[in-house]
Write a structure and sequence with these properties.
By secondary structure, this protein is an alpha/beta fold. The protein folds into two domains: 122 residues, Aspartate Aminotransferase, domain 1 (Alpha-Beta Complex), CATH 3.90.1150.10; 222 residues, Type I PLP-dependent aspartate aminotransferase-like (Major domain) (Aspartate Aminotransferase, domain 2, 3-Layer(aba) Sandwich), CATH 3.40.640. Strand 3, helix 5 and strand 4 form a beta-alpha-beta unit. Helix content is 37%, strand content 17%.
Amino acid sequence: MKVNARAELEGITPYALGQTIEEIKEQYKLTTVRKLSDNENVYGTSPKVREAILRASADLAFYPDGMTSGITEKLSAHYGLGPERFLVSNGSEEIIRLLTRAYIDKNDEAVMAEVTFPRYKTNVLIEGGKVVTVPMIEGRHAMKSMLEAITEKTKLVFVCNPNNPTGTIVAKQELLSFIGNVPSNVLIVMDEAYFEYTDSKDFLDTMPLLEQYENLVILRTFSKIYGLASLRIGYGVMHKEIAKELHKVRDVFNVNQLAQTAAMAAIEDQDFVKDCAAKNRAEREFLREKFKELEIESFPSQSNFLFAYTNTPVIQTLTENGILVRQMHLPGYKEAFRITLGTREDHEFILQVISQLFHERAV
């Protein structure tokens, strides 16, 4: 007897994770692999985090704080907002799932950019909703078109800012206008996982808008600049009534205690965050300029990665030399890949590999 899964799962594929470092080493006979495919913090995490985890490891037999009260209080103090606005999660991706579980009914619509974080689409489809994708303009969200795509069936609008995988941002005034014109019965989900890496004067900090727009939900994470990707902890900031609904559908003890402890220590070390942001900014400018000299173009990034593209195949050569990047597909862009920003040593090695490839092809 065959037991059929829900019809909504047809056509959904698991998130592509790629080969492991050990598999790459074995396949290409390498001793060193530079993993620049998942937008992790190459500078690690704050030393204070490691110390806090060691102290907390004595209590592994106990269940974690089910209400995440400690980190919620830290976040409340950090942003100057009431604790009732925060929902801490098993990575900010969990809140995406909770939002679709709580607000998407069969045939409800969700609007998003054509090329953005793929888990928006997946979670909407799982709940039986319909995904409305809007083509991008040179790697950027087309906000006017997204606004026009909203109908009476729309429940959610996702805006990834900076956008993953292109690294671009929505201009401040353009985003303000968009938020102000979205109907109040449609949730605006601002995914700001890379917020701490931004330095553009044209980037809009949406936190001050929460009082004015009750349909605004802001997602942030400890996975990126805080360097806690392996512990899976993120958070959402929203109106207390939205948070109340999401608490109804979240798992019990959804965030483990080591993650909560690590996040509390991480948010206290803002010097580490500022140092990582400064290093990232310098390497972002360096690599983008050097790529341009090699005729590899990239979108203007406000994140810890570049979306690069060229007419010359480079991804396979990078892989063979132990440089892992993420292949990307965007209409009109050949040989596109997303590369996490590394250290200067990483970048000089990458440039050497690519220069050698181009020289061999020229000969």
